Amino acid sequence: MKQTDRITTAFTALREQMLSLAERITGNRDDAADAVQDAFVKLWQQRGRYETTSHAQGAGMMTVRTTSIDMARHNSRQADVTIDQVSEPIEEVNDNDRSLAYRQVRHIIDNDLSHNQRLIIDMREMQGLEFDEIASRMNMTAANVRVELSRARRRVREIYQSRNMEKQL
After folding, report:
1. Distance from C-alpha of 122 to C-alpha of 115, rounded to nearest angstrom
2. Model confidence over 28-83: pLDDT tens digits?
3. Which pLDDT value is given to residue 112?
């Protein structure tokens, strides 16, 4: 079996377990998906090191675990303010706020992402297409679609958060 097949087989067989592990560590399904994709990329870059599928699976689970821990630590440093430290009462989100947030996210997607990332987000989030369908339309592999979607989501989240932090200052 080729080395690339070992990595792909390992991740395909354990994807749900990896997502479950990552979600338990990060506490967030989106972060978990990002952690699994980051782990896949890390293993892919070292694909020559794995002699068997079970070796790749073990390395995959360990990489997902460490990547998830790193992500959880990074996210915990981002949220240093507790709910008790907020001086103003928290207001309920109304439709105007939700509409504004949607427009801001749409603006980021339209202006700050690559063409492929825009297409992938629209096909997955707006049209609800599966990864295999997106991959065939984009002439990519499903794994590449997942990686690009993960990167796009992360970029949107980072830009949205940084712009909202700037407004608060």
Report:
1. 11
2. 888 888 888 888 888 778 877 877 777 778 888 888 888 888 888 877 665 555 54
3. 92
Q: How many CB atoms lie within 10 A of CB 52?
A: 11
Distance separating alpha carbons of residues 25 and 71, to the nearest angstrom: 9
Residues 122-150, mean pLDDT to the nearest whole number = 88
The CATH classification number of 94-168 equals: 1.10.10.10
Q: CA–CA separation, 150 vs 21, rounded Å?
A: 17
Which SS3 state, helix, strand or coil, does residue 70 take? helix
Say what the pTM is: 0.47
Domain boundaries, the chain: 3-78, 94-168
Angle between helices 29-45 and 3-26 (to 10 degrees): 150
First to last CA, the chain: 55
86: Cβ–Cβ under 8 A, 6 or more apart, which residues?
Answer: none
